[in-house]
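Summary for the steering committee. The consortium agreed at its last meeting that each partner would contribute one worked example illustrating the joint modelling workflow. Our contribution is presented below. We chose a case with several input lines so that the handling of multiple components could be demonstrated. No manual editing was applied between input and output; the record is shown as generated.
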Amino acid sequence: MESEEFNLIIEPGRIEKNYWSDLWRYRELFYILAWRDFKVRYKQTVIGVAWSVLRPLLTMVVIVVVFSKLAKLPSEGNAPYAIMSLAGLLPWQFFSNALSESSNSLISNTNLFTKVYFPRILIPASSIVLGFVDFLITFVMLLLIMVPYQFVPSINMIFLPFFFILTFLASFGFGLLMSTLNLKYRDFRYIVPFVVQFGMYISPVAFSSSIVPEKYQLLYSLNPMVGVIDGFRWCIIGGDVPLNLTSLMISTVVILAFAWLGIRYFRKTEKMLADYA
Amino acid sequence: MSTIIKVENLGKSYLIGHQRERYVALRDVLANKARQVASKTKNILSGGQLIAGNEIEEFWALKDINFEVNQGDRVGIIGRNGAGKSTLLKVLSRITEPTTGRIQLKGRVASLLEVGTGFHPELSGRENIYLNGAILGMSQIEVRKKFDEIVDFAGVEKFLDTPVKRYSSGMYVRLAFAVAAHLEPEILIIDEVLAVGDAEFQKKCLGKMEDVSKNEGRTVLFVSHDMANISSLTNNAICLVNGEIAFQGNTRDTINYYLQNGLNICSIFKAEPDLNKPNFTYAAVKTSESDGVHFNGEDLEIEVEVNMPKIIEGMSVSFQIFNSRRFPVIYGYLFDVDQPILRETGRHKFKCILPKCKLYQDTYYVKLHLAESKGREKFQEIDNICEFEVKMIGKIIEWGWQKDVCIYTEDFSWELY
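What follows is the complete predicted structure of the assembly.
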């Protein structure tokens, strides 16, 4: 009754009804935080944005040399190995960048959220934007590399946004979880880089997931990046390799579960973040 | 007038850990470490907090806080360090959640707990104005509209496109405050941010604050150690002691309560009376501001209590005030030959007033002496107590007050020929 005239009530454990609409009101802060990260990223570097091109390019070269030329792993369908690996590197790089950035985002922004109120989820969310910029750069690079190979991308490309959203959800879910855990228990500062490094080898980045034996395929797709990377390859290379729908379903379920868990855990701890910092 | 803030039974507790036992033997250290890892892992799995130490205590930073604020009120919050002032502001501005109770607010809230929150050293002044504005809750349109005013207030036109890491600290603070001063929320929460910058800029800020609160009818909550600022800026005040409201009312009464209850006394020395020889049982420095902050030119008081278990003739009490370089600056004394003292058993209280104390800005501490002059027997010497800090506030010189200019200021006048 009397509480109706007050537009803001602060109570322990109170769940705000208009959490998501509140978030919309703070969209400008979201843009500006992302813009800040972008602005300061390559300050005091000599080659600047070129780093965004160089990093995936060099990774691709190493993959091609080591896995294709030395280890003689097969490509997928009749696509050149460089294109196959870059198509896998594209979502993986986004995932690993976004995960590393967002899991560190709370720690590096403690000075903000211990002094001012705003929906805390903006911090990990805005830190992913930078990864998206890198993603776009790598994507353009992939299209350019197709030219000398005279490779025409598949019509399946129209499904790419779907797989991108899946990658985003995967990195956002894990990122939210890791950012809070990282703030509370600094052990995760050492765990996350390890997971990212380890993950590159257990995900089909440098090889096609078709080389995994049939009977382990389902188990393998519990790694959410398997469905995502396979999806990206199917979109870009297309052709004779059909999409493994079962494995995609499993990966999607795992991703959704983690995204839900991440958001839930974040919202639960959000109001106490300033005390953990 | 309508209520704009209503706080009921507000409480905030923290868990703090203590290390009770110290281990020396390797076996015990290892066993203890293993136990710690086990309990911490349990904490992680249950989502609890990591707390150092093997004994955990619940500490209430705020307890049973109840108050209401009407629209247009300017409320000062005073109390010693650790009384819960900043925690109260943090809970009110939604930075952290309360443990108990409820707060109801009407309208937009902006909090200013620090000058220049979110300033990025690599970004230019112009970019930081937009960034800081957004963080404080201004829309970009609002910032754009007030941009010239902000730049003008800060006086940094020439350096707008220079990264703020190249700014002098004065420029940095001016720019940061200028952004904050142009916020237009219904409720403004301010923690001692005015204690920055040179005196001239402080005056400008205070003027702006007065303008905002008095003329624009905004509700302001303001924490400060400076009673002069509190009394000029606020009409009501709350005095917090150990996380609870000890007094609330109009500003004059609250400040009186605060001063009368000795809440502005800094580190107090206390000891049990000795049964065999005379000793100090109490010593305190009463500074002009709270938390051991003293303004140059104000009266400084030193209070001591001496316990006499038996009658001794020819006693003397004296003190020295040392500066941070351990140089004795002031000596004060009280000898029995000048004025009979301590001629009875029991506790005796003394107060020494240093009128218009002109110590220069620095940190000082006190050394006490208790002796008997005839037999030259020294009963007690207490060093390093009652630390206090002197600030040069309210006096303006063009260059600002630099370190180690002098150790003492004196009145002077010039005659020009």
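The domain at 269-391 of chain B is CATH 2.70.50.60 (Coagulation Factor XIII; Chain A, domain 1). The two ends of chain B are 62 Å apart (CA to CA).
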